[in-house]
Each structure stands twice: as C-alpha cells, then as structure tokens.
Design goal:
This protein is mostly beta strands. The chain has one helix at about 1-15, and strands at about 50-65, 70-85, 90-105, 110, 115-130, 135-150, 155-170, 175-185, 190, 195-200, 205-215, 220-230, 230-240. The longest helix is centred in the first third of the chain and has 16 residues, at about 1-15.
C-alpha cells in the first residue's frame, strides 16, 4: 500500500513541478488538501462531493539565513481563497490565491512588507483510509507555494515545496484531531545591504497538530498550530459541493 501511495504522490508532485519556479521558503498557510474529506463516511461514488471552496488565514514566524551568513527574522500573514477537487475518494488537488503582509528584521532594523500576493498548488493522497480502521487515517501531502512582495523598497520573492505526513482520527463523523510533520525548502531572493542575495530557512521543518470540525456534512472549520520548526498558526473554513 505504501508503494502505491508513494507512486501517487510522486505523480502529483511531478504535475506540480511543471509550474513556474520562483523564489523562497515558508509561504504555506496551514491545513492540507483532502483533510476535510476524512471526516465523512464514504458514500457511493455518484453522491460523493468532489469540490470544496475554502478560505484561510495563516500567521508564521521563522529565521532565515542569507548570503554571507546574515540572519534575518521574518513574520508573515497570509489570507487565501482555495478551490479543491477530489477526483477519487483518496486523491485531492488544490489551488489557492491570496494576499501577503509581514515584516523582516535585519541588523536591528525592521522592514515591513508591501501588500503582496501568494499562490499555491497542493495535493494529498489518503494512504490509510478511516473506514475499517476505527476512524484512523494517514495523508501524504505536498504543496508548492509562491509569494511576491517588497521590503526596504526592494523585490522580495519566495517559493517553497513542502512534503508532509498527517495522522488523525475521526470521532462521531464530526471531530477530527490530527498531528502533522512537514519538510520543505526553496530559495529566497532579496536585496540585503543594497546587494542582491539569496537565502533560505534556518529550520526546514514543521511539527504540530490541529483539528477539523464538520458542520451539516457540508461546512468544515479547521485550526492548526505549529510549535516546532517554522512556527505558525492557521485557521479556516470550507464548503463542500
């Protein structure tokens, strides 16, 4: 089963990597494609809801290292609208677009982000199904994100690719707490000290957890906290149709 899961995730990632490469780490907004569907008992294929529209907000704090071993602290806020498609009960793909704000600190100075844009493509594969497993499930997740803004009157662009695993259990077909771990990487391009520089995250991982709540079998809410690695907090809502 794990071999089949790895193959499916590999196909999804190959599709994502065809998209344009940009520049920097840590632009995800939390949550995972396909997570809300794990709260639903599977129905016949013709009655399965294959689409989900969502909105989310994410706050993240991380440390970056640029050329010349220059350390930069970054805080960012991202608001996203997402559209998710579930072509099969186990596979989900997702696209999102939204706005970005935040700040970076370097050498005792803090520079605010101009209003920027963030976009993402994501995919998940349900490697362990909750049906027949007491509500326990496992998702393999991937996300490719891009952000563009300005800081200190210079372009600041970022891209990262995240791979993760998510474990959870559904209670009463409504409440789904979960734990997640992700690794990620990608370059950051910015002018540091008046000269173009490339950076990356110091901590290229996340470990945390969250929960989703299903309402009226169509609406879902989620919250996620990440205390280890790149720290973050995210919350959102969705509607399945």
């Amino acid at each position: 089963m794990l071999t089949r899961a790895a193959l499916c995730v590999g196909v999804a990632l190959a599709t994502l990597l065809v998209t344009r490469a940009a520049s920097a780490c840590g632009v995800g907004a939390g949550g995972a494609a396909g997570l809300s569907g794990c709260s639903l008992a599977e129905h016949e294929e013709e009655s399965r809801r294959k689409w989900r529209a969502g909105a989310s907000y994410g706050l993240a704090s991380t440390s970056l290292r640029f050329t010349g071993n220059q350390r930069v602290s970054q805080t960012r806020h991202a608001a996203l609208a997402t559209l998710e498609h579930r072509p099969t009960p186990s596979l989900s793909v997702q696209a999102g677009l939204g706005g970005l704000l935040g700040e970076v600190s370097l050498g005792g100075q803090t520079f605010g982000f101009s209003p920027g844009v963030i976009g993402l493509l994501g995919a998940s594969y349900r490697a362990v199904d909750p049906a027949g497993n007491g509500g326990l499930f496992m998702l393999l997740t991937s996300q490719l994100s891009f952000a563009a803004t300005r800081a200190n009157d210079a372009p600041y662009t970022a891209v990262d690719l995240r791979l993760g695993v998510l474990f959870g259990k559904t209670f009463f077909d409504v409440l789904t707490p979960y734990a997640t771990a992700r690794v990620f990487g990608g370059p950051i391009l910015w002018d540091v000290g008046g000269a173009p520089a490339q950076g990356t995250d110091v901590n290229k991982y996340q470990v945390g957890g969250g929960a989703t709540v299903l309402l009226a079998r169509r609406f879902d809410l989620f919250v996620e906290g990440i205390p280890l690695g790149e720290r973050g907090l995210a919350a959102g809502a969705g509607y399945a149709f």
